[in-house]
Amino acid sequence: MKKVSYLLLITSLFLNLLSASSLYERLLNKETISVATEGTYPPFTYHNKEGKLTGYDVEVARELAKELGINIKFHETAWDIMLTGLKAGRFDMAANQIGLTTKKRQATFDESLPYSYSGTILLVRKNEERIKDIKDIKGLKAANTLSSIYGELALKYDAKVLAVDTMAQALLLVAQKRADLTLNNSLAILDYLNSHKNSPFKIAWESKEKKRAAFIINKNQEKALELINKAMQRLVDKGVLKRLGEQFFGKDVSKQ
């Protein structure tokens, strides 16, 4: 068993090194790049009525690919294993409203120029009167993905986190009174409330601070990151990010 585990570890490290050493060359050679995304997190990454994968993050990734002259292949994967898969070399990049918000992430990954800025919203049932501020969640049940910045925020304020995989699952637990609250991206929550006028939820608190989201790649790929960032800057200069922001949110979300 130990021998098998050792071989798996060596294989994982080899794949990671292979990915780290070859992304720049594959970008130069106009090869296909793999991009991890959830596909279940509207309006950033989801399937439309026709079943096509779309969303703000997805379309920014497609525009980046056009600017780089490459093809991309999306790999829909759960959030909890997305960064693990990226680190192991199964993906070249992740596009899923990710920011390098912890020292652990910063030590492992690099991020491109940001393509969006958003805050955090604390959502509760309309008849919830106990929660007026983020500090009020102590001892209450928060439905969130444990490894997300929102799950980490809930734990920071001593809430009891009920682990979920998606925002939809979190909303269901709150609606069913199995959880008291959920924390999530302000753009995602506002999009949900706008498209569900009769939802049983209300906003109890919203952060003043905005966090940035960007494409995430493994560390030590400076040349690849430079190519990506130059392409991202061209998208900004051409007004592409502004156009996509207005398409999905009615405003440019690429600026603070």
UniProtKB/TrEMBL annotation:
Keywords: Signal. It is found in: Cell envelope. Its main location: other. It holds the Pfam family SBP_bac_3. GO terms for cellular component: cell envelope. PROSITE patterns: SBP_BACTERIAL_3. Residues 32-252 form the Solute-binding protein family 3/N-terminal domain. InterPro entries: SBP_3_CS, Solute-binding_3/MltF_N. Belongs to the bacterial solute-binding protein 3 family. This is Polar amino acid ABC transporter periplasmic protein. It comes from Helicobacter cetorum (strain ATCC BAA-540 / CCUG 52418 / MIT 99-5656).
